[in-house]
């Protein structure tokens, strides 16, 4: 294991396998040619520009953003109080609560999408977008609870008692003393939820309709009919966006501490 | 209602279904320095938390300065608590920590600054006002916690094991600090500890607790010289404790009759130093010996069980295995009112 | 201080009600649909009918087969990569782990799409093979089980690597030298020392990879198309092409059982470890 050639060779192969394809896509998207090919014939940014002009992408980007930001916010509003109660109070059903709230992770997204379509959208005439919103929120909820719980468990409860004895109400103690100290955890949960929601495909498969499509679904549809490098350009752009967010989070927050 | 400043009457405290403190009565006068002393699990910390309002009593009453506070919320009791972990707010600096309670009261900024400044001065931490708790040593953190509670001018100040986490030198410093602060401000102070040396050194009165009840309340001298029960005797260093039944000492080797047994006494206890070594009606074998600076300690195997004795270090040493005479003079025994 | 039970229930209620109403209930109803016969009563007929079709059997077995293959391959490659990473200096180690984790942040659509370019008829693999002279014509790699295998492996390998790195870091430092001094060759060292001691990390990684492979959609959809179906792509097809909701429910139930039981196994092993 300590032989000199082993680590570099293995790591090169593994990284080439994991990241290589992605680099190829970036290169292919910079091609000046008409079709998707690697190595690219000439270099040009025209396909990158084209991505921004496709109308449906603009609409689906907005939908995905709305779902990612809104869904994560609601998941936090639901999840932060729940994590707090679970970590500070000894409730008899706490394991059951945790199970219910974490269950979306165990169920494949495609099933969630189908179930919501059949039993929420169609019978109750709830629109596709609200149903999508519910689905995404439900998917992010387990992450919100898990990450915030980790932060809360690391925070001693006696500072809340100290705050109360100094005159604060229990609710006031939560906002004055607990929130500032789990801010990092909440932000980490937000970013994790955002990225998960944005890249999510299976849930949205059945919950798509006229004018309501998430970006990845739109990409899939586009890929089926288009064979020019603009798809590669879109894939590259999205990848950079995800990586960028996570990189910034790690830089300024130390994201890895909370996960 | 009693006239005491802080009065606990018939207090029963429980965690879920487990009773931690049973029917406790305690009357404390204003300005006293009280120690709640006992082994872990005796209920001392539970009692402290009940006084603070962090635990709702199952039964009984707590009154403070003439007011019944049994049902009063913890944030309205005017009771201060210095936690064993200090519980400083990590996201605030020293000044903001100490100012926390004052700001909650809505005091004008000028007054807050004055009082915080005075508080920091009284614990010698003025230059640390801008530091964060993480940048402070344990002793400094504790002083910030103390200042934070003191600036609120509480009616009662509770301290949870204030000296247990400190090294020997800091412990002496902090002990002196606590005494000084208490005498200067006249605040009624109650601290919880498992260390009898601390209780004896600091307190005006000691409340010895065991299994959710009070074993004995008294001044340090009373507790030290006249323990009321076998437990207290053992706790304050009486190593040789025996029950007294029908004028006979109950020993592992059988009942031993005494020449002039004291009346109405349930047990007798001897300190190692009170055992007369070298002469007496009993004989024992030296099982172990250790040097303790100014004295030498001896562990003796005897017909009365294991006896722990002590002799001046200057005297000739008794070797391991040596047979030696000894006596337990009744005159030098503590009389125990209760045994069990 | 935390004695007010009523407040605690009020705090968890919104999350629980939301999860139950919007998620558990609809999914439960969907699953129950798979146990009904035409008359509306309880029956296992849908499952019997489902498995009596050759196509369905093939898809089911293929999904399982690929799941195991990907997991086994990920284990081997994962151990190799994890050993390599663990032997690095701390800063390089951190950077390596970061690079390995990086792909996880990218949309699976983007990651899988890359393989279309690489494995296609005019893709680099074929170009390379033809240049070397191994074949005269482009061979078909896309829309085969091999393509899906490659895609899934790339998708989930990082998870296995992270699990194993974590497990290897917790290996007692002297375990390997001790075994070597006692005369073990590298194979024996791996089998008798490393494997048992990193068992938990292997199980964690394995569960993640296995469950992920079983319940994958995008990769089989892009790289398998409608020619090589996996359980989830079959589900999608049954609903959109044939409106066959019953089959969809059956598949859904199978997927959940597989996902749930592997997660349960994971929890069991984790708690068993904590007790020792």
Helix/strand-derived category of chain C reads mainly alpha
Q: Given this structure, which CATH class of the largest domain in chain B is correct? A: Alpha Beta
Largest interface by residue count? A-C, 83 and 75 residues
Our measurement of the CA-to-CA distance between the termini of chain C, rounded to an integer number of angstroms, reads: 34 Å
Uncertain regions spanning at least 5 consecutive residues of chain C:
none
Strand order of the largest sheet of chain B: 6-7-8-3-9-10
Q: What can be said about the biggest beta sheet of chain C?
A: none
Number of strands of chain C: 0
Order of helices and strands of chain B: EEEHEEEHHHEHEHEEHHEEEEEEEEE
What is the CATH T-level topology of chain C? MetI-like fold
Strand percentage of chain B lies at: 35-45%
CATH superfamily of the largest domain in chain B, called what? Answer: P-loop containing nucleotide triphosphate hydrolases
Please give a handful of descriptors for the protein shown.
heterotrimer; A: mainly alpha; MetI-like fold; globular; C: 276 residues; 77% helix
Could you give a quick summary of the protein structure above?
Chain A is an all-alpha fold.
Q: What does the model show?
A:
The complex is a heterotrimer of chains A (259), B (340) and C (276). Chain A is mainly alpha-helical and 259 residues long. Chain A is built from 11 helices and no strands. Chain A has helices at residues 6-29, 46-53, 55-88, 94-106, 109-124, 128-153, 158-165, 170-199, 202-206, 215-225, 230-253. In chain A, helix 4 (94-106) packs across helix 6. With 340 residues, chain B is an alpha+beta fold. Chain B folds into 2 domains: 6-231, Rossmann fold (3-Layer(aba) Sandwich); 233-336, Nucleic acid-binding proteins (OB fold (Dihydrolipoamide Acetyltransferase, E2P)), CATH 2.40.50. Chain B has a 6-stranded mixed beta sheet, sandwiched between helices. A 5-stranded antiparallel beta sheet of chain B has the order 13-12-11-14-19. Chain C is an all-alpha fold and 276 residues long. Chain C is 77% helix and 0% strand. Chain C contains 13 helices and no strands. Chain C is globular, with a radius of gyration of 23 Å. Classes of the chains: A mainly alpha (259), B alpha+beta (340), C mainly alpha (276). Chains in contact: A-B, A-C, B-C. At the A-C interface, helix 1, helix 3, helix 4, helix 5 and helix 6 of A face helix 1, helix 3, helix 4, helix 5 and helix 7 of C.
């Amino acid at each position: 294991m300590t032989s000199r050639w082993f680590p570099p060779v293995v790591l090169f192969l593994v990284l080439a396998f994991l990241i290589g394809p992605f680099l190829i896509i970036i290169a292919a998207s910079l091609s000046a040619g008409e079709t998707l090919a690697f190595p690219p014939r000439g270099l040009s940014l025209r396909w990158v520009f084209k991505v921004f002009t496709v109308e449906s992408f603009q609409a689906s980007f907005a939908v995905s953003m709305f779902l990612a930001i809104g869904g994560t916010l609601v998941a936090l509003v639901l999840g932060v109080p729940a994590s707090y109660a679970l970590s500070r109070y000894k409730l008899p059903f706490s394991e059951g609560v945790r199970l219910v709230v974490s269950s979306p992770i165990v169920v494949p997204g495609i099933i969630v999408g189908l179930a919501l379509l059949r039993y929420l959208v169609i019978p109750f005439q709830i629109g596709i977008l609200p149903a999508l919103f519910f689905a995404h929120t439900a998917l992010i909820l387990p992450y919100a609870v898990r990450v915030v719980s980790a932060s809360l468990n690391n925070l001693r409860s006696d500072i809340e008692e100290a705050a109360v004895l100094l005159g604060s109400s229990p609710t006031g103690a939560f906002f004055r003393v607990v929130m500032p100290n789990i801010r990092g955890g909440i932000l980490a949960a937000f970013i994790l939820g955002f990225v998960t929601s944005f890249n999510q495909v299976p849930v949205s498969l059945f919950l798509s309709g006229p004018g309501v499509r998430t970006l990845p679904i739109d990409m899939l549809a586009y890929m089926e009919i288009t064979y020019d490098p603009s798809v590669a350009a879109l894939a590259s752009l999205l990848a950079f966006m995800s990586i960028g967010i996570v990189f910034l989070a790690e830089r300024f927050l130390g994201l890895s501490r909370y996960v | 209602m009693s006239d005491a400043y802080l009065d606990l009457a018939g207090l029963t405290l429980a965690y879920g279904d487990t009773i931690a403190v049973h029917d406790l009565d305690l009357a404390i006068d204003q300005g006293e320095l009280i120690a709640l002393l006992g082994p872990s699990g005796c209920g001392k910390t539970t009692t402290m938390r009940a006084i603070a309002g962090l635990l709702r009593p199952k039964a009984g009453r707590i009154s403070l300065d003439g007011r019944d506070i049994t049902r009063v919320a913890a944030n309205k009791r005017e009771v201060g608590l210095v936690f064993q972990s200090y519980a400083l707010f990590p996201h605030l600096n020293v000044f903001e920590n100490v100012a926390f309670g004052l700001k909650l009261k809505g005091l004008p900024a000028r007054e807050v600054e004055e009082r915080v400044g005075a508080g920091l001065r009284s614990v010698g931490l003025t230059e640390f006002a801008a530091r964060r708790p993480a940048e402070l040593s344990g002793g400094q953190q504790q002083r910030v916690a103390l200042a934070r509670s003191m600036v609120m001018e509480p009616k009662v100040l509770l301290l949870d094991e204030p000296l247990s986490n400190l090294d020997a030198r800091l412990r002496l410093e902090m002990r002196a600090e606590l005494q000084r602060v208490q005498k200067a401000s006249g605040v009624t102070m109650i601290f919880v500890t498992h260390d009898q040396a601390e209780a004896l050194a600091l307190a005006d009165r000691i409340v010895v607790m065991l299994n959710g009840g009070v074993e004995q309340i008294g001044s340090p001298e009373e507790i030290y010289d006249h323990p009321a029960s076998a437990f207290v005797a053992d706790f304050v260093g009486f190593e040789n404790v025996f029950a007294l039944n029908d004028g006979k000492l109950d020993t592992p080797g059988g009942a031993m009759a005494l020449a002039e047994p004291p009346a109405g006494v349930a047990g007798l206890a001897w300190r190692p130093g009170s055992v007369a070594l070298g002469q007496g009606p009993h004989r024992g074998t030296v099982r172990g010996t250790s040097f303790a600076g100014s004295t030498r300690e001896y562990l003796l195997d005897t017909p009365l069980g294991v006896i722990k004795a002590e002799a001046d270090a200057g005297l000739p040493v008794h070797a391991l295995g040596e047979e030696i005479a000894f006596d337990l003079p009744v005159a030098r025994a503590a009389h125990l009112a209760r045994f069990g | 201080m935390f004695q007010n039970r009523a407040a605690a229930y009020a705090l968890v209620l919104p999350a629980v009600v939301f999860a139950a109403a919007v998620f558990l209930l609809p999914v439960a109803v969907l699953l129950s649909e798979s146990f009904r016969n035409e008359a509306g009563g309880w029956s296992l007929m849908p499952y019997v009918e489902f498995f009596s079709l050759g196509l369905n059997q093939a898809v089911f077995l293929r999904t399982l087969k690929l799941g195991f293959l990907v997991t086994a391959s990920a284990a081997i490659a994962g151990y190799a990569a994890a050993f390599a990473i663990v032997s690095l200096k701390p800063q390089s180690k951190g950077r390596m782990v970061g690079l390995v984790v990086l792909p996880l942040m990218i949309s699976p659509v983007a990651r899988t799409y890359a393989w279309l370019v690489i494995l296609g008829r005019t893709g680099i693999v074929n170009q390379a093979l033809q240049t070397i002279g191994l074949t005269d014509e482009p061979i078909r790699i896309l829309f085969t089980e091999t393509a899906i295998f490659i895609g899934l492996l790339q998708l989930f390998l990082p998870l296995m690597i992270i699990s194993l790195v974590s497990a290897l870091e917790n290996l007692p430092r002297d375990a390997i030298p001790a075994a070597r001094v006692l005369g073990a060759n590298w194979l024996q060292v791996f089998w008798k020392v490393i494997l048992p001691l990193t068992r938990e990390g292997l199980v964690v990684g394995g569960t993640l990879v296995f469950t992920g492979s079983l319940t994958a959609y995008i990769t089989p959809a892009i790289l398998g198309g409608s020619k090589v179906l996996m359980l989830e792509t079959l589900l999608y097809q049954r609903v959109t092409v044939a409106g066959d909701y019953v089959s969809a429910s059956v598949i859904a139930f199978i997927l959940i059982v597989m996902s749930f039981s592997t997660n349960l196994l994971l929890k069991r092993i984790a708690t068993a470890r904590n007790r020792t």
